[in-house]
Amino acid sequence: MQLAVWTYEGPPHVGAMRVATAMKGVHYVLHAPQGDTYADLLFTMIERRDRRPPVTYTTFQARDLGKDTAELLQDAIREAAVRFEPQALLVGASCTAELIQDDPAGLAEALDLPCPVIALELPSYQRKENWGAAETFYRMVRQLADKSLKPAPREGRRPLVNLLGPCALGFRHRDDVVEVTRLLATMGIDVNCVAPLQASPADLRTLGRADINVVLYPEIGGEAARWLEQALGQPAIRTVPIGVGATRAFIEEVAGLAAVDPWSALDALESRMPWWSRSVDSTYLTGKRVFIFGDATHAIAAARIAAEELGFAICGLGCYNREFAREMRAAAAQYGVEPLITDDHLAVEDAIRAASPELVLGTQMERHIAKRFGIPCAVISSPVHVQDFPARHSPQMGFEGANVIFDTWVHPLVMGLEEHLLTMFRDDFEFSDSAGASHLHAQAVAEPVAEASTPEGAVPWTEEAERELRKVPFFVRGKARRNTEGFAAMQGRTQIDITTLYDAKAHYAR
Amino acid sequence: MTVETRLAPLDAGCANPAPPVVLRERGQREVFCGLTGIVWLHRKMQDAFFLVVGSRTCAHLLQSAAGVMIFAEPRFATAIIEERDLAGMADCHDELDRIVHQLLERRPEIRTLFLVGSCPSEVIKLDLSKAAQRLDSRFGGRTRVLNYSGSGIETTFTEGEDACLAALVPEMPPAELGSALQLLVVGALPDVVEDQFLRLFGELGIDAVRCLPARRLADLPAVGANTRFLLAQPFLGETARALEDRGARRLEALFPFGAEGTTDWLRAAAEAFGVDRMHFNRVVAPGRERAKRAIAHSHERLRGKRITFLPDSQLEVPLARFLSNELDMVPVEVGTPYLHRELMARELPLLPQGTRISEGQHLDRQLDRVRADRPDLTVCGLGLANPLEAEGLSTKWAIELVFSPIHGFEQAGDLAELFARPLRRRDVLRV
Ligand code: SF4
User: Fold this and answer.
1) Helix H segments across B219-359?
2) If pLDDT is split at 50, 70 and 90, which confidence band does A135 have?
3) What pLDDT is attached to residue A469?
4) Which residue of A has its CA nearest to B81?
5) In this structure, is residue A309 part of a structural domain?
6) Which of A12, A41, A233, A345 is the most exposed place for a label (fewest CB within 10 A)?
7) How far apart are the CA of B154 and the centre of ligand 1, in A?
8) Is the Cβ pair A33, B33 closer than 8 Å?
């Protein structure tokens, strides 16, 4: 058993729901008790979908156990096939139904339905949401793709690609698809099929027509792309175009495989981001210590942007999906940090506390941690919350994605000029720094957890030193306090006076 | 898979000439399981901790239902069963002991620990009452360990609170024989509402009033033959039975929603405790008048509007009664996951004739009926609200009725406003 309070990923059948909900013409019959219907609200509330997820739950109860749960399942499959007339039907079990072993595959087959049935086996006690989504998508592709389809001869036509991985409840998938499609169009490349998002089973049948598969989200599309590579010989592009550098690399890679000229795209669609980053106001970004955590793909991409495109210093890097531990370890080595690979949010919280970063890039979970610590934060990855589905176009990928990232990461930080003014005016009697800076929500300042809590047995502060500390701007005060206390303990000082404060400052100066 | 029966009119035991027809359905249910109650119970009982023994799904449900209420470390968690436990590589009881140890070490302030059963723990027949006994004898001096089921195969949404409170009843100390009459208010209420009620009982001259659950479980009230109890929530059938088994007597009343419901509820206590009628009227009048004035604000907008409740919390019948009697709304269908006839005996006859009451659920058929009825307002779960809105039907999230203070005189206006707001919004929007 594992003790969990908050989880980064749901069970694998939620991953299957994400695929079914993303697609058109698919229905999913899930053998599950009534409480599992909570998963609908993820889609209708968080993503604001205007339709119920295409899922029928059998909602068996205790009194059905050992009697007719199998019959319930068969009835539900039959009714769903009639009512929803899907082009393809998924059947599967949630964690509870897995234990009663009703054999959804066999029961569905016995019904002899007019549409293909894809039976899912998603081991709930071993696997999680992303794996479930990848497995579901792979099973569908494997069963539905027409293996006899080959790309048409290249002469006289534009290259064709599939975009694999975009899904329901994905972090900015909706907008990334628009952005990448536009980028490819500029290069003279057309999209054959985007899947699972908006694809129908009929669309999956035609995957083989494309020259190349572009894996936008390896967590979800990776398995299917691997199979298509083997079974249909379609090459896959796995460079994820998040950030200016990665987008350029992506363009060159696609251009190479598709035999088109990349410069048309590179010239036509530059990002504002490089100049925004080079302009003088951004000088203050240099060496800002950033802690990064999310799914591996987004976290690794964020690390590259942070290091190469914004000039941040990476003080922590990790992911919650162990399936990508290898990739994460390689990335962490590159930035000289220990990779944090865990799905225990308390461990992440401890790591953030220990690193005391100036910016946290993470999931909704890290956003809450950062908020408690009063550290600025931007969200870069699932798990998502309602605010991660903005009304406006807000991609992460491509050149526009890089612009969006610049804005959303830099915005929570004190802007260069504002930092300067805060320092200048902090002794002004009319200026109250307890009101916080204009960019931070008042709440973050109201709960200065990071600053409070002098641990017991710590070196005591003199009143004078405390007063001096209060003159330090609030957004670095917590760090100054911790550093000074650590320094005093290290030096074995018996109290912290003004001299200790400034000795510590000198010690930690970078 | 569904049996649809129209039962003969139920015997409401009252003068109503045509008691409502009840439609019983079986099929897909779109409701939470009893685990969800933990979201409000852990806020109410401040020295208790809820440990769900379940799967990743259970943990995900709690997290999704808790929504934005993310605290550093809430007083609940899930012990997630893993492959090792199922394959017999680890003994579930040993694992549970290890986790409880770990937990109590980290949170020494916990006075009561609930082991909460889930579908997986029940299907693999993990005996949590045995585990609770064992752990209680180990930690009992410091932390009491109890258990109940919040599983979706046994409990629907608010039945989780019922199961939790019922598990507390055997822990209540026995009231001394021959002691004076005691009033017990049963059901988790927001503290502000609880305090309002306690003030009113005090003004009525009923001083011996206790609540279940108590804010601190360390001081559970006593129970015995001299206990009279009022249910504050309509979904507490098991708890009521457990209290009756200990000699307590339930006071029949409407549930305390709206001016009328609250008055009736208070009156039941006043009568049982021999409060003078004039005095009762004097004490109750100001609150009752305030409630009526507050409700009047929404009356204009809600009068004559047709409303359907999809099954959710078992609050549906009393709320439909409030809306029809005090706001002149027209209930079209009142769906409830479970119709507790005994507890609803006073409520049901007050629903207008012809109200369609449905028990259980067959989701697709029920949605077909909603589309055919086209009520002005549909009260439903979070999974259904936006899809129905997109079909042009105004909705109200049922879960808000469980999470917000809606009981008593001072909240009657807020309760009415909860239903009026979606309609007002509909009227103001021009997009
Ligand atoms: S329905 Fe059962 S398995 Fe699902 S969340 Fe509730 S207790 Fe857990």
Assistant:
1) 237-245, 258-272, 277-302, 316-327
2) very high
3) 87
4) A1
5) yes
6) A233
7) 10
8) yes
Interatomic CA distance for residues A3 and A138, integer angstroms = 31
pLDDT digits (tens, 9 = 90+) for B96-131: 999 999 999 989 999 999 999 999 999 999 999 999
What CATH number does the domain containing A30 carry?
Answer: 3.40.50.1980
Q: How far apart are the first and last CA of chain B?
A: 42
Q: Which of B60, B80, B151 to mutate to test the pocket of ligand 1 (most atoms within 8 A of CB)?
A: B151
Give a yes or no: residue A334 inside a domain: yes
* B427, B331 contact by CB (below 8 A): no
B-chain CB neighbours of A49 within 8 Å are 386-387
> Is residue A377 over pLDDT 80?
yes
Instruction: Name the β-bridge partners of A236.
Output: A213
Q: CB of B390 within 8 Å of any CB in chain A? A: yes
Query: What is each CA distance from A73 to A61, A182, B152, B217, in whole angstroms?
Result: 12, 44, 17, 42
Query: Beta B395-397 vs B377-380: how paired, if at all?
Result: parallel
Note if the bond before A153 is cis, omega within 30 degrees.
no
Question: What is the residue range of A468's domain?
Answer: 454-509
Protein residues whose CB sits closer than 6 Å to any atom of ligand 1: A 33, 35-36, 95-96; B 33, 35, 54-55, 57-58, 61, 118-120, 151-152
Token pair for residue A440? 């931070």
The rounded mean pLDDT for chain A is 90
Q: Provide CB contacts within 8 A for B360, sequence distance 6+.
A: B24, B25, B26, B27, B29, B311, B337, B338
> Per-residue pLDDT tens for B371-385?
999 999 999 999 999
Structural domain includes residue A148: no
Instruction: Confirm or reject contact between B332 and chain A (CB < 8 A).
Output: no
Contact: A1, B79; criterion CB under 8 Å: yes
For residue B120, how far is its CA from the centre of ligand 1 (angstroms)?
8
**What global pTM score does this model have?**
0.90
Cβ burial of A106 (10 Å; 0-12, 13-18, 19+) is: exposed
A235 shares its domain with A347 = no
Same domain, yes or no, for A469 and A492?
A: yes
In the listed set A234, A266, A298, which residue is the last one of a domain according to the structure? A266
Provide the number of structural domains found in chain A.
4
Distance from CA of A384 to the nearest CA of B (A): 11
Contacts of A343 in chain B (CB under 8 A): none
- The amino acid that residue B20 corresponds to is P
Chain centroid, CA B222 distance in Å: 22
| β-pair partners for B380 | B397
**The two three-digit tokens of residue B201, written as one number:** 């009982």
With CB atoms and an 8 Å threshold, state whether B64 touches A39.
yes
How far off is chain B from A486, nearest CA to CA, in Å? Answer: 24
ipTM: 0.92
Which run of H or E residues covers position B228?
strand B227-231
Q: Residue A271 corresponds to which tokens in the numbers above?
A: 């990002």
Which pair of structure tokens corresponds to residue A17? Answer: 């729901």
How far is residue A119's CA from residue A97's CA, in Å, rounded to a whole number? 14
Same domain, A125 and A206: no
Q: CA B159 to CA A505: how far, in whole Å?
A: 58
Question: Chains A, B: CB contacts under 8 A, how many?
Answer: 187
Question: Which of residues A136, A152, A169 is at a domain's end?
Answer: A136
Expressed in angstroms and rounded, the spacing between residue A37 Cα and the centre of ligand 1 is 9
Phi and psi at A376, nearest 5°, equal -60, 150
